[in-house]
Amino acid sequence: MSAEASNPGDPGNPGAAGRRRGRRRLELNGLRRIGRAALLGPAPRDGLPHALEHVAKVHRGHHPDADLDTLTKAYLLAETSHRGQLRKSGEPYITHPLAVTLILAELGAETTTLTASLLHDTVEDTEVTLDQVRDLFGAEVCYLVDGVTKLEKVDYGAAAEPETFRKMLVATGNDVRVMSIKLADRLHNMRTLGVMRPEKQARIAKVTRDVLIPLAERLGVQALKAELEDLVFAILHPEEYATTGALVAEYASRPDPLTALAQRVRTVLDEAGIDAEVLVRPRHLVSVHRVRLARRELTAAALGRLLVLVAEDADCYAVLGELHTCFTPVISEFKDFIAAPKFNLYQSLHTAVTGPSGEIAETLIRTHQMHRVAEAGVIALGNPYVPTDGVDAPEGERADPTRPGWLSRLLEWQRTTPDPDTFWTSLRDDLAQDREITVFCTDAPPAAPSGGTGGAIGLPAGSSCVDAAYERHGEAAHCCIGARVNGRLAALATVLRDGDSLQLLMAPDSAAGPAPEWLEHVRTPAARLAIARWLAGSRESGARPAGAGEGLGAAPPADRRAAGEDGPGADPVAPASVLAVADLPGAAVRLAGCCTPVPPDAVTGFAVRGGTVTVHRALCPVVARMAAAGRQPVGVRWRGAGQGGHGCRVTLLAEAFSRPQLLADLTEVIASQGAAVVSAAVEPPHEQRVRHTYTLHLPNAAGLPSLMRAMRQVPGVFDVLRAGRARQPAAVRP
């Protein structure tokens, strides 16, 4: 994990001053003292090595009762092990683990994390072994050090980097402190990247942008995320970086309207008897750049935000009330992340008020504890994990009752992605989705849900019903045939919104499978990889998706209704072995999806790939096409002498005048006849007419005529047809 020594932002660059103003840097003076102390060696003074004094002081500021003996022992082992190693800048290598430890100490990390950060490169770069770390510091520190240790390129070749990240993510699933150390390590490496070749700087910056910064965001470590963003910005977009820095420097010489407004807010809150700290919080450079792009112009008030810190949650809402009473609020800017925290632990009230000169000041209201978590994320929580109790788990593995849903999803799909390139691409795609929604499932929970608590599941913003199905049911979602969103039938491609209620409709048998079209509207890697695996397996076996792609609310293409078994419409909709037999010894039998025959229909069959016999109604248009093509029919007959005492599946077309509540009335009649809706589709109205297509499961085929009669009695319906039957001209009944 070695890194280089010079800063990518040149002090002479006009953006450098803006960067210092635009972000709270993590104690650069402390790092300079560490560098000087490291040159002096480990000589103790009052029992504490010189180089460790500043780290210990910062650590004691967060943890007054911290035991420094373990830190001292870890430092002495690290310094001895790395002695003689130099960074490319010429500094002793020990300055790097010391700097990483200081970053974590300033964020409030506990002693175990700091111990591991001091040792994080020893196993990778020195003769120290994991067994020695375990013997000296225990299994907990050993687990953290092992989690951040890189895999050797000599063993993994080009796959070393993605496999190293896979290893770290798996370790993070058991203890998020692994990723905390990695983020601090990358921050110091990015600060000291300037001595590397430009192309290597760009490569490291891109990985930081695509993987590490999104992970910092998801773990809530905003202090690290903000500085990493600025450092990446300087390397990958130097011109925009310089322009933004120059603008910030230009505004720095002007009066700051936020300072005056902050004083007015203090006065208002004092008069209301609310004890609050009001600060002006400058934006970091990337944030300023985003504001400039969004608003097309920059004002002095846009360079920062007001931050109001209070003691209790209730005080946050009291402050909000006073601000909205005494100032003009911008209602569209209000967000309540206290009642509904973000998926990365973030809590705060967001609002915006207008100052006396018309300037708009974005304002954040939170408690002091919320602020610590907003800055340090999971690091501020210490160690929320407890050793697995009463469960035979691998050594060092931990139970995490608070593991975020996004991490559970990521760990789930990575287990089924052995290819490093696919994993690396999927990881970047997953992390690029930086907003999460919560959807409430009203269907019966699966026996072993892959994520979510109760009926709630978390998904990346932009996810569809297909994503939700795989998140909820895993690979059993192959049988999903439709959905209801907020009580209404919806296509599987429907994009879900935060707070939606969702009922997933599953096929009663396991013959169904996903269609290739599903890949066009999935966002999550887990769903995409599961669908791709199924499709690849079905191609190898010669099978086809069973009725796939006909989600509720989406009209099926015309060729799905009347194509032959060589087309999409020939997908099997139900196993026929209990209903029909073929005059071909040993042949499997399936019912054609184009005409869905049921007893006592006159039927015929044709042999298809794999020796399967597909059963069609005798009047099905496909039968005529097969005969014209010279295909020889195979004799088939219904079991039980053609009696209709078996359950079956059938597709019906209801043609009607378009009117409100037609779908509800039809489905009510279908239910009253004892039939179950497997899937339904509604074509767009044309000349005030509409066609509904229903695939239904009937407990007894003998009930089909009465069902069709009942559907014809629904007001507005002028005909009900079996799928695959040619439409005959007829007078339209009212």
SSE topology:
Blueprint: H1 14-22, H2 28-40, E1 44-45, E2 48-49, H3 53-62, H4 69-82, H5 95-106, H6 111-118, H7 122-125, H8 130-137, H9 139-148, H10 153-156, H11 160-174, H12 177-191, H13 198-218, H14 222-236, H15 238-252, H16 257-271, E3 277-282, H17 285-295, E4 304-310, H18 313-326, E5 328-329, E6 335-336, E7 349-354, E8 360-367, H19 368-376, E9 386-387, E10 398-399, H20 405-415, H21 420-431, E11 436-441, E12 456-460, H22 465-473, E13 480-485, E14 488-490, E15 501-506, H23 525-541, H24 559-562, E16 580-582, E17 589-591, E18 603-607, E19 613-617, H25 621-628, E20 633-634, E21 636-638, E22 648-657, H26 662-672, E23 676-682, E24 689-698, H27 704-712, E25 717-722
Shape label: globular
Largest sheet: 6 strands, mixed
Overall mean pLDDT stands at: 78
- Count, helices: 27
User: Structural class, please?
Assistant: alpha+beta
3D architecture notes:
The protein has 27 helices and 25 strands. The strands form seven sheets. Strands 3, 4, 5, 6, 7 and 8 form a six-stranded mixed beta sheet that branches. It has a five-stranded mixed beta sheet with strand order 12-11-15-13-14, covered by helices on one side. It has a four-stranded mixed beta sheet with strand order 17-19-18-20, covered by helices on one side. Strand 23 (676-682) and strand 24 (689-698) form a beta hairpin.
Structure at a glance:
The protein is of the alpha+beta class. The chain is 41% helix and 16% strand.
Which descriptors apply to this entry?
6-stranded mixed beta sheet, single chain, disordered C terminus, alpha+beta, 5-stranded mixed beta sheet, globular, 734 residues, 27 helices
